[in-house]
Amino acid sequence: MSYDAFVDLVNRPADDLRLDRICLALSACFQPIVDDAGAFGVLDEVAGNVTDRSPDGVCRAVFDHGGFGGDADDYYAPENSLLDRVLERRLGMPITLAVVVIEVGRRVDVPFDGVGMPGHFVLLDVTGQVRDPFAGGAVRSNEECAAIVQRLHGGRRVAFDERWLRPVAPRVIVARILANLERSFQLRGERQQALTAMELRAQVPQVLDPRGRRRLADALGEGGRFGSAAALYEALADAHPDAAADLRRQATQLRARLN
């Protein structure tokens, strides 16, 4: 049921994409019980503490009064990518803390956009300032953004690129969370959970290019997720008639392994 709920929510029209709902459905795909009401209650409570309806006011409510912060001790712990656990522990990684800010901001009509810099997720507020959710919502200059990317790339000097600060769509945020989850489970040797993250990522529309979807289908097939891999090959065949025969043949072979 949680898988179906996730697929339904992430495939809704753009104006009906709610990150809190999608991310909680995602969480339910990895845990036996997810307290949706409790999670929504935390977001509502934090939003209720916003006394200044501005980007600064939202960040103060989340990080100063709400006590949210980055988990520097166990950055790739799976719970840092599961929204219900982030809301429970008040710890997360940059992208899930960004989701908290976006959803609190939405509740008080203070919009934020997610921004996927190389290796680090930040926020763009309504005034055009870049805010770092892993640093309590601190405002970052272009030079500081370049320094973050440089540090994450082994100290190799990099020039700031304005394309880093382009807002990304909610589905891109969800796909990136799932990529983080896949890596988290792989680091812990939890292969089946990593495959589940891949399987869910395949259901996020308009994110992966055809080459990426082909690689994902190959990996799902190798991991024993024959039905999901076959469905992905069939979707690729529909979109690419020039390669359809080969793709449908692979889908048929995978479906035969389900019997």
Layout of secondary structure:
Blueprint: H1 2-10, H2 19-28, H3 36-48, H4 55-65, E1 69-70, H5 83-89, E2 91-92, H6 94-107, E3 112-117, E4 120-125, E5 130-132, E6 138-140, H7 142-152, E7 167-168, H8 170-187, H9 191-201, H10 210-222, H11 226-239, H12 244-256
Parallel strand pairs: 1-2
Antiparallel strand pairs: 3-4, 3-7, 4-5, 5-6
Helix pairs in contact: 1-2, 3-5, 3-6, 4-6, 8-9, 10-11, 11-12
Walkthrough of the structure:
The protein is an alpha+beta fold and 259 residues long. The chain contains twelve helices and seven strands. It has helices at 2-10, 19-28, 36-48, 55-65, 83-89, 94-107, 142-152, 170-187, 191-201, 210-222, 226-239, 244-256; strands at 69-70, 91-92, 112-117, 120-125, 130-132, 138-140, 167-168. α1 (2-10) packs antiparallel against α2 (19-28) and α3 (36-48) packs across α6.
Task: Offer a concise description of the structure.
The chain is α+β, with helices and mostly antiparallel strands and 259 residues long. The chain has 12 helices and 7 strands.
Briefly note the structural class of the backbone. Answer: alpha+beta
Strand order of the largest sheet: 6-5-4-3-7
Give the rounded overall mean pLDDT.
91
Q: How much β-strand is present in the residues?
A: 5-15%
Helix content: 55-70%
Count of helix runs: 12
Report how far the terminal alpha carbons are from each other: 23 Å
* Count of DSSP strands: 7
Sequence stretches where pLDDT stays below 50 over 5 or more residues: none
Q: Please trace the helix and strand order, writing H or E for each element.
A: HHHHEHEHEEEEHEHHHHH
Overall shape: it is globular
Give me the Rg, rounded: 19 Å
Main sheet: strands, sense, barrel = 5 strands, antiparallel
